[in-house]
Specification:
Blueprint lengths: L8 H4 L16 H15 L6 H6 L2 E3 L2 E3 L7 H13 L8 H12 L8 H13 L3 E3 L6 E3 L1 H26 L7 H19 L5
Antiparallel strand pairs: 1-2, 3-4
Length: about 200
């Protein structure tokens, strides 16, 4: 009768549980590329165009100011007032702005509340067009504010307003602007026909 001899340890090693060794986690290439692209966009964030920086709402140190729309009658009146106030060495007050702004808007000064004027002053100040004199309730026009006021009012009054009137008034006599635009349209039509862009 055969004796039951103990089996060698190498025999039982085949049945021992497999020990899983941790392996390094590899990040998929698409994830790495996405992270790199996000970092690149953050480092290359495009600043807001200068015109939009003035025309859009703005937040400065937690203080929010509404926009100064270029085509707004009130904005143009405020900018016109800044051109005048730039000449005052001691600055101007809330009441001074109300007195000058009212006729520009065709309103009675008594109808313009102090709260609305304070809102206008806040917009101008946070947009960097005016600054308050320390310890007073008076304001002065900044160099930036004066330059923007002169440029934007001149563009609006002398270019856009008169130019659009010449273009849109169908009963107006022929003028240089309309004549040149017609020439431009004729040239574009000729090029388009030449390259068969239109029938």
């Amino acid at each position: 009768m055969a004796r039951n001899l103990p089996l060698p340890s190498s025999h039982w090693s085949r049945y021992s549980p497999t020990v899983c060794r941790p392996t390094s986690m590899k990040v998929p290439r698409c994830s790495r590329a996405s992270a790199s692209l996000s970092a690149f966009r953050a480092s290359r964030s495009v600043p807001k165009p200068p015109f939009r920086a003035v025309a859009d709402p703005i937040v400065v140190e937690g203080q929010r100011a509404s926009a100064l729309p270029f085509d707004s009658v009130r904005t143009q009146a405020l900018l016109s007032a800044l051109v005048v106030f730039h000449l005052l060495p001691d600055g101007f007050r809330n009441a001074d702005l109300r007195a000058l702004l009212a006729p520009l808007l065709g309103l009675d000064p008594s109808l313009m509340t102090q709260g609305r004027m304070s809102c206008d002053l806040r917009r101008l100040r946070l947009h960097g067009l005016i600054e308050r004199l320390p310890g007073t309730h008076r304001y002065t026009v900044t160099t930036r504010g004066f330059h923007l006021a002169v440029f934007l009012t001149r563009v609006h009054h002398r270019l856009l307003r008169d130019g659009l009137a010449d273009i849109l008034d169908e009963h107006a006599a022929d003028n240089a602007l309309r004549h040149e635009l017609q020439r431009l349209d004729s040239v574009v039509q000729q090029i388009s026909r030449k390259h068969r862009l239109i029938a």
